[in-house]
Amino acid sequence: MTKPLNELTIVEAAKGLRSKTFSVQELWDACSAEAARRNPELNAYLELFPADADAIARAQARIDAEGENASLLCGIPLAMKDNILIEGHVASAASKMLANYTATYDSTVTKKLKEAGVLFVGRTNMDEFAMGSSTEHSAYGPTKNPVDVTRVPGGSSGGSSAAASAHTALAALGTDTGGSIRQPAAHTGLVGMKPTYGRISRSGLIALGSSLDQAGPLAKSVADAKILYDVMKGHDPLDATTLTDDTYPVKEVGKSLRIGVPRHLLVEGLDADVLESFERTLAALTEKGHTLVDVSLPTSGYALSAYYVIMPAEASANLARYDGIRYGLAERGESLLEDYVQSKSSGFGSETIRRILLGTFVLSSGYIDAYYRKADKARDVLRAEYDAAFGSCDVIAFPTTPSPAFRFGEKSDPVSMYLEDVFTVTANLTGMPAISVPMGMVERDGVSLPVGIHFTSAHGADDLLFTMGAEVTGETL
Length: 477
Prior knowledge:
Number of helices: 15
Largest sheet: 11 strands, mixed
């Protein structure tokens, strides 16, 4: 039976467009119609864009003229997270603070995707300013998981993951500060990839933690994720942190990959059936000829604590600009102080305020040495430990999350919510690339829920992650 057009992968859609099995207009109409049908239930999109007839016609003409030489993304409908600027569209970061902000320019990734011929379906919901692990902390209401609408889709890129998982777009773009692409990918059965820090430009991304943030793909296959990554990567003169292709040496590996497993970290808080699925996936990889290696990462036990010092500190600095005077919502009181208080109290949600206060505290006089600088030193030790571990292995494997998608309100305690990022934050702290790939299903309350396996590789070894992911999914890249 032929798949509906909106359920195709990018690779499948590109093949169909080039063989003239269907047109760009038909592909757009299928995704747009499904987005309009599902969004009232899922709240995956904050705004659905109308059809851009000119862009659709240009994409079709380009495919007709260039054939197999046209970009594989030409004519592909894509969902875009609401903290990535698209010129002429609102970019609110799911916050009332930026509810009326219309982007005056394209982010670098938006520009590259437009040049490749991508069509944007709409801007997706997210945790406000990317602060959260569930997409429950949006000023515009939570997004629901298409697999089970009583559960969260993960966060902060939950709108993007729900949009792709529900087949309202062929893929989506997210941002990842501590796992915000990989964690929702695991919860919704997608592939999610965070590149090496600096591999993809941050110009035109609304910042949370500037030393942590990276844009990346959420896709239905490893091949699709690689296609998006290859288009978006590259040095950008608008972002001084971006890398050139020769920044890191190419790591030579054989057909048999060495998979590092830090079993000493898989002892607390990890659901038994998730661990069982993880071990089963590792066993399947050994049957394919890959080797398991025990590795020790003793400081990783402190990674989550270090992250929740560094990230709020950077957030408090980045969000200080939204004061009702220079940027964002402007509420007026009887004094300048009241202007500030009323603007920030009305514009920011409770989780954003919590993290700003925490970040301001750890940067304050008398506490910066006790907290922030110690966390930064722990970050250096983490990098060194991972670099040493990659002497004996090619990738390091974890479950992406300790449990499958949880019910709304189940993690109302902030600390329990933060623990959802325990396996993902280290890649952001170290700047190393990481990928989450589906590794099967576990059952909760009679519903089968997806879970993911997570791989980290050395700086610059992003392509190795696609190779490893394809070994899990059985794809040929």
